[in-house]
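**Protein of interest**
===
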Amino acid sequence: MKKIFKCFVLGMVLLCCVQSPIFASDVIENQKQYDTIVEEVFQDGSYLESYVVVSEHAEVFRSSKKTGTKTYTAKTSSGKVLWKAILHASYTYTGTSAKCISTSLDTSVLNSNWKITKTNHYASGSSAIGQVTAKKYIDGNATQTINANLKLTCTASGKLK
């Protein structure tokens, strides 16, 4: 009986020491939105603002992963949205380094006088970069151009800024 008990205890200890695989249900996700910042104000009172949303994925026994977005919104002086650009990025970080592993860029126009004429996005080290050119047209002529440069960086400790 004592041998069976000892074998059982030894088996349980060994079972606890073996690292188990991590399943999707083991990943905890948390989202945070950071304060909105006015990036630029134009002569007509319209302005460009930005904010960051972060999703954290805490994984046991692995380097951490973080995804986030940086949203730029162009608004009239009264606060009506003209157009939006959203830079999406995913990162891995270990505490000593960080790397941007994917990017994408979405745009939408909510005012018929505006058009997005150029977009670009890419990863560069620990940063995601997005570039948007938007133009306002009156009677077929471009009357205003906004060049928005979006950048979202992950620090080695996993902070997005």
User: Anything to note?
Assistant: The radius of gyration is 24 Å. The longest strand covers residues 81-93.
